[in-house]
Amino acid sequence: MLQAGFGQSQIARAILTARHSIVVHALAIAGLFVLPLVVLLFIVIHGLSSTSEEAQKRLLFYTAGSLANAVDTELQKYLTIGTMLAASDHLAANDLAAFAGQAKAMLQGIDVAVVLADGVHQVLNTRFPDMPASALRSAEGLAAQNEAAKAGRPTVSNVYIGALQKRWIASLEIPASQVRGGRYSLAVVFTLEGFKDLLNTGAITPDWLVGIADGSGRFVAGFPGAREAGNPISPHWKARLNEDGLSEFPSLEGIRIVNANAHSKLANWTIGVGIKRASLDAAVKNSFNWAVTAALAVGAGLLVGAALFARQMARGLVNLQRALVARLQGKATEAPIIPSEFRALWEAAGQAADERHQVSKALEATVEDVRRAHDRVRESSQILQAISDLSPDLIFAKDRERRLLFVSRSLTALVQKPAEALLGVDERGYLSDADEMRIIEEHDRRVLEGEHISVEETVTTPEGRRIVFLSNKLPWRDASGAIVGILGISVDITDRRQHEQRMELVMREVNHRAKNMLAVVQAIARSSSRHAGSMEEFVGRFNDRLHALAQSMDLLVFNEWRGVDLEALVRAQLGHFEADLGNRIHISGPAFVVSATAAQTLGMAMHELATNAGKYGALSNAKGEVDIQWRIADDVFHLTWVERNGPAVAPPDRRGFGSTVLDTLLRGTFECRPQMSFDPAGLHWSLTCPASILAALQPTVDAPQQALAHMADA
Asked: Which whole-number Å values give the CA distances from 655 to 184, 501, 604, 611, 663, in the listed order?
C-alpha cells in the first residue's frame, strides 16, 4: 500500500506538470518538452523494471529460506521421536519386546520406522517385525550410523536405498552413547515423499526449479523433470552447495538459471529455488522496448502538431492519470481514451503494476506456507502431547533455566495445576517443600552439566501425600550437540517402596517371634522332662503341650498376629471335648480380643486346666460339668474356671508344670493375680489382670522369655 501510494503521487505530480506546460506553453516550448518527457518515461519504466527484477530475486531467496525452515520442522519431528525413544527404560533393561510396543504406540499414524542396531546387524525394525536376526543394515545406513557415533550426537543421513524397504530413504541416527543402556544405536528411518509435499506450495510458479539436495549431491526431493529422490543434481549446483545466497549457473537441462540457496540447520542438506534467466530478463527487455517506442511516438506527435496535440494530450493525461491510479490500486480497469503516444506508458506502467501485484500475491502465498509449516509443527506437538498423556508417568522438558517447556497430563494432575500455569516456571512454581525443591534442583544441575541420571525424588502433593518417583533425566541437545535443556520421565514407585518397608518389618517380626517360640518350646521341654516319670510320659505330655501351643499359633496366624478372640481360643484348647461343649462345658463372656503374647499364655493355661479336668476332675466321669466365665469392668479382666459334680478334689502332692503355667507364668508376664482353690466339690481357678495389658499392649520383648525361663527352672 505504501509503494502504491508513492507511485500515485509521482504520477499525479508529473501529469499535472505536463498539463500546465502543454496548455500554457504548448507551441513555445514544444521542442524543449520532448526530451524531458522521453527521459521521464525511460526513468519510470527502467525503475519499475529494476524493481521487478530485485523483487523476483528477493522472493527466490525468501522462498528458499522458508522451505529450509519447513524441512527443519519435519526433521525436528523425527529428532523429538528419536530422543524420547532413546531415553526409554526398556532399553536400559534390554527388554526389546516392551520397547517395540512403546515405539509402536508412539509411531501410530506416522510413516516412519525405528531401527535398533547392534554393530552391523538390525536387532529390531518396527516396519519389519519378522525380519531375520541376521539382517544387515545397508552400507549407506551403516555409514550414517558410524558418522553419528563419531560426532557423538544425533545426525541426519544422506539419502540411500534401504536394505529392507528397497527404496530411497533417509534416517536420523542417534549413537549408542546417547541411548539408554548404551547397547544399541537407534535410527528413525523415514521416506522422502513428505519432503516433496513441502515443495508443492502455491508460491512456486511453473518457471521455477526447486530441489532439496543432500551432502553427497543427490536429490532428496524436487521438480520438475528428473529431480526425483536419489537422482544426482547438476554438477554446477553441486559445486555451489555450500554457498548461501544467489548465483547463476546452467541447470540439468543446460538452461541458464538464477538460483537461491538456503541450508538446513539439522542436516547437511541444501534447498535451492531457481528461475530461468530468460524469464527474468523478459520483463526488463519488454519495458525497454516500450520505452523507446513511446518516446519516438510522443516526440513525433509533438513536432508534427503541437497546438492540436496539446489539447488532446492534456485530456489524455487526465484519463491516463485516473486509469493508472486505479490500476495501481488493483482495480480492474479498461484501457483509457488517451493519445497513442502515451499508450506505451500505460502498457509499461500497467505491466509493472501487475508484476508488483503478482509479487505481493506471491509474498502472501509464502506467508501462508510459513503459517502452514507452523501448523504442522503445532500438529506434531499435539501428537507428542497425546502420546505422553497416554502414560501414567510424569513426562517433562525443561530449558537451561529449569523452566518447564512441556508437561504431560500426569504431571498437571499431580500438582493440580493446568499446563498453562506450569509452562515457563521452575519447581518453585508448583512445589512447596524446600528440601524437595533443593534436591530436584541439584539433580537438574547435574543433567545440565552433561550427566544422564536415574535418581529417586520425593514430591508432596497439595493434599500432603508424599510420593516417591524414580526419575530418569538426560541432557536435551540441539543439532550442534549443545545442551539446551532437560528431558525427563518420572515413574511412581511409592507402592514398591512401601512394600519393601513392609517386608523388612515382617522379616524382623518373624525373626523376633521365632526366637520367642523357640524359648517357649525349650521351656516346655525342660519342665516336662523334670516332672515325667518315664520317656513315654514325657513324650505324651510334651506333644500335648506343643499341640495346645500350635492351636494358639494357628489362630494367631489366621488373624495375621493382630490378636485372637478369647472365646475362639478357649474352644480351640477344649477341642478334645467338642461333644461336651454346650452340654457339660459352659462358656460365657463378652467379646474380647487378646494380644498375640496373651493368646499363647492363656492357651497353655486353658490346655493345662482341660487336661487336668479330663484326667482327674469334672470331665473324668460322665456327669461332671465345667463353667468358664469372664467379665471386664473398669479395665479389670476377671476369668474363672469352676468344676462341679466330679470326683472329690484334693491338693496335689507336688507342684508340676501345670501349676507353674497357671500361676508363675501368668503372674510374671501380665501382672495377673491367679488363684487356685482345691474345694472337694470341685476345682476353682480364677485370674484377675489389667484388661489393657491383655488386649492392646504386648509386654516387653524380654518379659515372656524371662517368665518362661523361670517356669523351666520350676
From this structure: 79, 47, 17, 15, 11
Residue 431's φ and ψ, nearest 5 degrees, are: -120, 160
In terms of Cβ atoms closer than 10 Å to its own Cβ (0-12, 13-18, 19+), residue 205 is exposed
Find out whether 430 and 419 touch, Cβ atoms under 8 Å: no
In the 8-state DSSP scheme, what is residue 670? H
Mean pLDDT of 277-290: 69
Task: Give the distance from CA 35 to its chain's centroid.
Answer: 75
Domains within the chain, CATH numbers bracketed: 391-492 (3.30.450.20), 498-713 (3.30.565.10)
CA quadruple 147, 148, 149, 150: dihedral sign: positive
Q: Tell the residue number behind the cell numbers 491516463, with chain if given.
A: 320
Tens digits of per-residue pLDDT, 435-475? 999 999 999 999 999 999 999 999 998 988 899 999 999 99
pTM above 0.70, yes or no: no
Q: What cell does 348 get? A: 509499461
Q: Is the dihedral of CA 290, 292, 298, 304 positive or negative?
A: negative
Closest among 263, 261, 193, 204 to 228, alpha carbons compared? 193
The enclosing H or E element of 38 equals helix 30-86
pLDDT at 598 over 60: yes
Decide which of 209 and 44 is more confident.
209
* Burial of 501: CB neighbours in 10 Å, binned 0-12, 13-18, 19+: exposed
- Report the C-alpha gap between 63 and 655 in whole angstroms: 111
Cβ-in-10-Å burial (0-12, 13-18, 19+) of 206 comes to exposed
Q: Which of 205, 169, 212 is nearest to 189 (CA)?
A: 169
Cβ neighbour number for residue 444 with a 10 Å cutoff: 22
| Overall average pLDDT of the 229-233 stretch | 88
What pLDDT, on the 0 to 100 scale, is given for residue 550?
58
What's the Rg (C-alpha) of the chain?
49
> 178 pLDDT exceeds 90?
yes
Retrieve residue 588's grid coordinates: 460365657
What is the per-residue burial (b if ≥16 Cβ within 10 Å, else e) of 643-664? Answer: bbebeebeeeeeebbbbbbbbb
First to last CA, the chain: 116
- The answer to whether 479 and 148 have CB atoms below 8 angstroms apart is no
**Residue 545: partners with Cβ closer than 8 Å, 6 or more residues away:** 524, 528, 604, 607, 657
Query: How far is CA 630 from each of CA 547, 688, 689, 692, rounded to the nearest angstrom?
Result: 24, 10, 11, 15
User: Cell triple for residue 423?
Assistant: 509452562
| Separation in Å, CA 296 to CA 38, 211, 343, 651 | 8, 45, 12, 156
**Helices and strands (H, E) in the chain, number of each type:** 21, 23
Rounded distance between C-alpha atoms, residue 459 and residue 593, angstroms: 40
371-415 pLDDT, tens digit each: 775 666 566 566 767 776 777 888 999 999 999 999 888 888 888
Highest mean pLDDT among 126-130, 583-587, 598-602: 583-587
